Amino acid sequence: MKKQSRIGAEDTIAAVSTPLGEGAIGIVRLSGKDAVKISDSVFRSKKGKLPSSFRSFTSHFGHVYDKDTVVDEALLTVMRAPKSYTKEEVVEISCHGGVIPLKKTLGLVLENGARLAEPGEFTKRAFINGRLDLTQAEAVLDIIRAKTDASLRAALGQLDGRLSSGLNKIRDELISISAEIEASIDFPDEDIEIMSAAKTGERLGAVKQEISRLLETADRGIILREGISCVICGKPNVGKSSILNALIGRERAIVTHIPGTTRDTIEEFVNILGIPFKLADTAGITHTEDIVEREGVLRSREHIEAADLVLLVLDSSSRLTDEDRMLLEDTKGRQRIIVLNKIDLARKISFVAAKDRTVAEVSAKSGEGMDALKDKMSEKIFGGGVRAAEGAVITNARQKDALRRSYESLGQAIRAVDGKLSPELIAIELRESLDCIGEMVGETVTDDILDKVFSQFCIGK
Ligand SMILES: Nc1nc2c(ncn2[C@@H]2O[C@H](COP(=O)(O)OP(=O)(O)OP(=O)(O)O)[C@@H](O)[C@H]2O)c(=O)[nH]1
Ligand SMILES: [Mg+2]
Prior knowledge:
By secondary structure, this protein is α/β, with parallel strands linked by helices.
């Protein structure tokens, strides 16, 4: 479906665009062709003027009225189409940030002809009206949800259109190559200059390389956006909870000298050198008859299975036990750091770091070695510190999936060129590849995908 067919929403939507609760200011936002007309029936400036007389991008102090009764004192801003977030007429009424004035103001604009907006509907309209493409609309959500500076930078770059412009270049080149190939199908006998197979192959190869470069950014982008899951595991009493607390800098998990203190998994987000980590402190793994503890062990195992990174904690002040050995064996093939804790006590075990064996020696109690552990965690993820997200970065799984499909079809097209197959076949593969790029920016995208993207937004965005 082409986006043109969705242009021209008939109704005017409204919602409270700020979080509900007490705040200095709360904003009721309207968008649609009657936005200004509707606000005329609920707002008058101090000088008695109506919003329809306000110039675009001016704010006016006045009151929200329910007929003749004042509901709240407010500042109203008019943003005329098409120079607004949605490219429609937009009005923002900044009321006092309490639940009641906002609810009343919203109720009034709804009574006067607006409809309550669905989650993300303002941004959806911005997309439908061509103000943003789909990668930029997704970036808006990422900005709201950014967990670290690096995730914010990546999202801002995407909103700025860095990804879109990379994708548009790829698309233009594919369209131009397709046109040449299609010309050779339409006019097979005419003596027109047609690209040689070698030249076609070369141009397609260059596009494929560009897509491959973008795909390489995907894993890093997705980590920046979604965070990386990291499980802290080990046998009971080795200091897992103490390490969680030391990493997040507060006493989140209960720590006692009694083995089996942590019964259920505790999860916390933490920003380590720009990477958002979702840490899970788990129940110590052991053979136990206690039903609650056994359930905890089961959950620990599930978390270990699902984690991107495993921190296996050992107590350096006591000898290795069978439980330790079993865990070392179980987590062998994983992205793993062996954390040797309690180095402030007399040593009973030591490890030699080998290539496949990243070891961090720490004392959760004194804090010694904790910074080195953080360095090792970030190294494990990006093979070094995180640099500012430069250039286009793929940040979400939907985009990565579409780009991967585009890459595969392009590979097929290149194979067809190399195998001197019919131009029709090459054209079909190229069309497929192009459609996937179109899906990323939202040019050829189904309503299902759109609904899925925008339903993640909050109401009022
Ligand atoms: N000396 C010393 N003691 C530590 C250190 N880290 C933790 N401990 C102590 O070890 C005991 C267990 O710590 P926890 O953090 O509760 O250990 P855990 O692995 O979460 O234990 P469970 O939840 O029972 O599996 C507590 O008495 C801590 O004070 C350390 O670095 N040095
Ligand atoms: Mg614990």
